[in-house]
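hiii so um. not sure if this is the right channel but i have a protein structure encoded as tokens and i wanna go backwards to a sequence. like what aa goes where. can anyone help
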């Protein structure tokens, strides 16, 4: 197995922004999500299951690497490089470009790092703030699509309707996240 990529020094020096070191908890949470998925490997050829199995032995080294990336504010380019795979849609002619769905396979270590960053951002926003809007359901812990649907239902059948008011609502999907937009009219 090849050693992890070297992370070069950052060009900027900013001592005012202290970034806490990565913890085993950050990594364990990210690896736990890999266990639940059975995805195809990215360009490095290592499937998520391999990272799950190796996480106990590689944990301290991987944690050190991710901490170094956080300290330097860098996301290695190699982890952003993907392998494009075209998946044919059933019932479409093979010679049509619309017959294929493009999927980009990324290295699992990059996905681990993204999860660590996403978890830290969510914790920071919820704890230190500014907290996310109450009506935002994407990028929020303990909020789901069902919660968004229940909110829409409450707005369209609840007190606003009974008072003769109206509700203008919309649900959109942006980058695989469900967003609820509602405005109560008086």
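sure thing!! here u go:
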């Amino acid at each position: 197995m090849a050693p992890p990529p070297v992370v070069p020094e950052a060009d900027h020096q900013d001592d005012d922004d202290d970034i806490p070191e990565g913890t085993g908890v950050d990594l364990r949470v990210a690896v736990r999500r890999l266990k639940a998925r059975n995805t195809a490997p990215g360009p490095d050829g290592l499937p998520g299951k391999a990272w799950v199995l190796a996480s106990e032995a590689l944990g301290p080294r991987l944690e050190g690497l991710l901490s170094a990336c956080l300290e330097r504010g860098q996301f290695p380019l190699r982890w952003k490089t993907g392998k494009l795979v075209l998946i044919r849609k059933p019932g479409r002619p093979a010679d049509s470009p619309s017959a294929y769905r493009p999927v980009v396979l990324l290295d699992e270590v990059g996905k681990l790092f993204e999860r660590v960053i996403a978890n830290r951002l969510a914790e920071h926003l919820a704890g230190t703030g500014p907290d996310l809007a109450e009506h935002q359901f994407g990028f929020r812990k303990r909020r789901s699509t069902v919660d968004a649907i229940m909110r829409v239902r409450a707005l369209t059948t609840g007190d606003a309707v009974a008072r003769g008011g109206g509700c203008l609502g919309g649900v959109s999907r942006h980058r695989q996240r469900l967003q609820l937009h509602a405005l109560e009219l008086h």
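oh and Confidence is low (pLDDT under 50) at residues 10-16.
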